[in-house]
Amino acid sequence: MRILLAVVASVAATLAFFDTATAQYANLISCLQGIQGNPKSYLTIPSSSTYNTDRLGYNVNFNYKPSALYHPATVDDAGAAIQCAAKYNISIAPRSGGHSFEGYGQGGRDGSLVIDVNQFQQFSMDAQTGVATIGAGTRLGPLYMRLWEAGQFLVPGGTCPSVGIGGIALGGGIGMVSRKYGALTNSIVGMEMLDATGTKRHISETSNPELFWALRGAGGGSFGLVTEFQIQAYKAPSAVTTMVYKYPLASYRAAMEGFTKFGRNAPNEFFGAMSVRSNEIELRVNYLSSASIANKTVAPMLARIGVKPLSSDVQEGSWIKAAAKWSGSTNPLDDPDLSVHRYHRGGSLVYRRLLSVTEMDTIFNNLNRRPAESASAYVIFEMWGGKMDRPPRRSPAAFDRHRGVVLGLDFGITWKDPTNQTGTQCAACLEWSAQFRKELYDAYDGGPQSLEAYQNYIEFDLPNWLEAYYGNGVSRLQQIKKDVDSNNLFTFPQSIPLP
Asked: Could you tell me the CA-to-CA distances from 175 to 150, 244, 252, 269 in Å, in that order?
């Protein structure tokens, strides 16, 4: 303790946060404090008054304590921070929005250096090519508004306006226009990245092509710090129709079969998601055309379900109005509520076929088994296919491992904590989750060792997770990791490992 206090008195409070605190942490903080860069860059350490709020991710089920959180305002400052971490052998956790299911935006363990790119908000649009330049700290809601105001453009992202583009784009990116335009990661045409030495690299089809392949689908924090994206945007259609149908839970089997059997052969303008909870079913459709065409197209699906919905809501409008509706937020898209946090345990599976009767019954039976009064269990089915099966052949991506997927399954449970403390566990919720996922895994074709899952809904307990997320690309990803980060500086519990 005396040695550390002699090194730098200002980090004395840091030591209380780490049972095995060493001079590494003191030296790291001293190095970060010594960066003579942009005055807008700022540092949060455990003695900072904002530390306990700054370290929070969206999922407060975790209580990880980073050694420091650095918010660079420039690429040079970010590079200097990487060099500090490399000098003292401290692992780096990049953070764009902090929505990792497993808290990896906090490092996934105590002691990491979090480099938060929230100040990288640059945006420009080339109206001729439709390519947008986007800072890696941009949230989806503000991005959608900037694209719209730049000429009514869109990119195929998700629905949650507070999600950072860095995580979703590097892992895939599925949303309400993905069957028409593909996954978000397949629309990336270039990136700017800082590697483990703090060196700037331009990543594209012709510049660092191996990284270009790896980052698009497996790049969520494993290879370096991405600071900027160049993404192909698309002119939004003149009309978009949103459709919401609600059914009683008792209609689950009919709704499930009607939705999936219709959706797998639906036009690419159709994107559907069916949310099943313990009290009701909500079927959402985003259709890229007028209401008259949407109603005519979707009518066979409703007829196949064969049950009158409890309610229906069909609205025709602009793309940006549809995006605001799907956000589920009362805030404007360009002002997402960043104060929302939740306790959550979730995961994902994807299927190259429709679900078996056993799998449908497993889901229904578990949703009827309420684990706790304060908990809400859910399953969301998303219809994949369309353009996601036909990405550009000239620039293959690690995400292409998922070509041929018919259905994506997002499942989980959330709970409330009256004490408002991070890391509060709901034992009954975790037990429910463990049993549910075990039954799902056992019912999967080939069993737990044959699973395929979506890496943006990353799950620590997933069996054989490397192959489930990345398929036969694992050895190639490991070699790329060795080539660009041989000391494993960018590491967390489920980062791409060295070979």
From this structure: 21, 16, 23, 12
